[in-house]
Design brief:
mainly alpha, single chain, 59% helix, 1 helix, rod-shaped, 0% strand
């Protein structure tokens, strides 16, 4: 065997640098933790979207119920106003027939039922009777 100039090296000097298994393991654990965190965040966002959708649907149903109730109340109000208006119109029509203006029906002396003589100081209306 020949000797080369310089120091002799051992066989292990030619194998190269050894990997840092501790650092590789730590990096793998950190990467796995980030992946699990991303998956968990994605699942949370999906669940939140589902809950929000259900809440929006429930709110829409309640809004629809409230709108229906308001419509029914408005319809009942309009019916009551219509009935009251009809009663006022009818009462006004009865009042035009005569007998209005006194506490006892037909005793006012003016425009009482069956009394067509006028009621102005007991004198008949000109042209009324001939």
């Amino acid at each position: 065997m020949q000797r080369m100039a310089g120091q002799a090296k051992g066989i292990t000097d030619f194998l190269g640098v050894k990997p840092e298994y501790g650092m590789i393991g730590s990096q793998g654990i950190a990467d796995q933790a980030r992946e699990v965190a991303a998956i968990t965040a994605g699942n949370a966002l999906a669940t939140n979207a589902g809950l929000k959708a259900r809440a929006d649907m429930a709110a829409a149903e309640h809004y629809a119920d409230a709108t229906i109730a308001a419509g029914q109340a408005q319809r009942q109000t309009l019916m009551s106003v219509g009935i009251a208006s009809s009663l006022c119109w009818l009462a006004g029509g009865i009042g035009k027939l005569g007998g209005g203006g006194s506490s006892s029906f037909g005793n006012s002396g003016f425009g009482s039922f069956g009394n067509y003589s006028g009621g102005l100081s007991g004198t008949p209306i000109p042209g009324m009777f001939g």
